[in-house]
Design a protein that fits this description.
Helices cover 32% and strands 25% of the residues. It is an alpha+beta fold. The strands form two sheets. Strands 1-10-11-3-2-9 form a six-stranded antiparallel beta sheet. Strands 7-4-6-5-8 form a five-stranded antiparallel beta sheet, with helices on one face. β10 and β11 form a beta hairpin. The longest helix is centred in the N-terminal third of the chain and has 23 residues. The protein is elongated. The C terminus is likely disordered.
């Protein structure tokens, strides 16, 4: 079972409904154990904790074919989640992001032509990088179109903002240094793919092939059934528990979700690596 499916199955929190009756389901005899999936993306660490049942038919009976809208919403959430993790795993405050637009003399006639403009831009940028013996280019970009004039958002490990702007010759350009916060670069990622996906605006992103993938691990013994139940009942326990489990990380938040169809709870935790002071270089 993929954890993405829990976004659909475990769909509401205790704050949204009276959770007392759902807390009782935590002791359901069909819950065999809790599995923890850990995703490390740069300085960010996420934990997805979910029940494994003695009888798989419990899930199979509960799972129904989603409606077209529900599936689209789930796909949209998963796209954003993957993008957030990719950006956090590959970029930092040493990198930049840019927005490129068009003037009236260079408006593309189609979205395909706009995408070709980005391909040509990256080709010219890579020529500059090769000529000046710079590190290989890493990038993620989104071409946005809809009610507004077509434009591009790109995140890249190219530090020279002046050169990055000069190479775009189709209209306006604006570059900024990346500014991570307590959740890394999640805010930027959500901005880049802001709004729901539609049939005309799929919010697809394009990235270089040399990006590092988030590190994903799973374990069935790290969180006991009893401890998962205690955390679901008292989320305030989570800070101490997870900072002991993952030394060097600071606890940020927890979300606990329940289901009308299956017993147990889905726990989602976010943490961030402590900042390590870099030694001062010699003057």
């Amino acid at each position: 079972m993929h954890t993405e499916e829990f976004l659909d199955l475990y769909s509401f929190s205790g704050e949204e409904r009276n959770a007392d009756e759902y807390l009782e389901s935590l002791r359901d005899k069909n819950i065999k154990k809790y599995r923890i999936k850990t995703i490390k993306s740069g300085q960010m660490l996420e934990c997805e904790i979910y029940p494994i049942w003695n009888a798989p038919r419990i899930y199979n009976r509960a799972r129904k074919k989603p409606t077209r809208k529900a599936q689209q919403n789930l796909n949209d959430k998963n796209t954003k989640k993957k993008l957030i993790r990719l950006i956090n795993a590959n970029f930092s405050e040493e990198d930049i992001w840019a927005t490129f637009t068009y003037d009236k003399n260079n408006l593309p006639s189609s979205i395909e032509e706009a995408k070709k403009d980005m391909v040509n831009y990256l080709r010219r940028l890579n020529r500059h990088i090769k000529k000046n013996d710079l590190p290989p280019l890493k990038y993620i970009y989104v071409t946005e179109h809809g009610k507004k004039r077509v434009h591009h958002h790109i995140i890249m490990n190219f530090a020279d903002r002046d050169v990055a702007e000069a190479i775009w010759d189709r209209g306006r350009k604006q570059t900024r240094r990346l500014q991570p916060d307590d959740y890394g670069l999640e805010g930027l990622a959500r901005y880049v793919v802001k709004g729901p996906a539609t049939e005309t605006n799929q919010k697809k992103y394009t990235c270089s092939k040399n990006l590092e993938k988030p590190k994903v691990t799973t374990a069935d013994t790290k969180i006991s059934k009893k401890r998962a139940e205690k955390i679901a009942r008292d989320p305030n326990m989570a800070t101490e528990i997870f900072q002991k489990l993952y030394e060097g990380y600071l606890f940020k938040d927890i979300k606990i979700s329940y289901s009308d169809f299956v017993p147990g709870a889905y726990l989602y935790i976010r943490m961030k690596q402590k900042n390590v002071k870099k030694p001062r270089g010699k003057i």
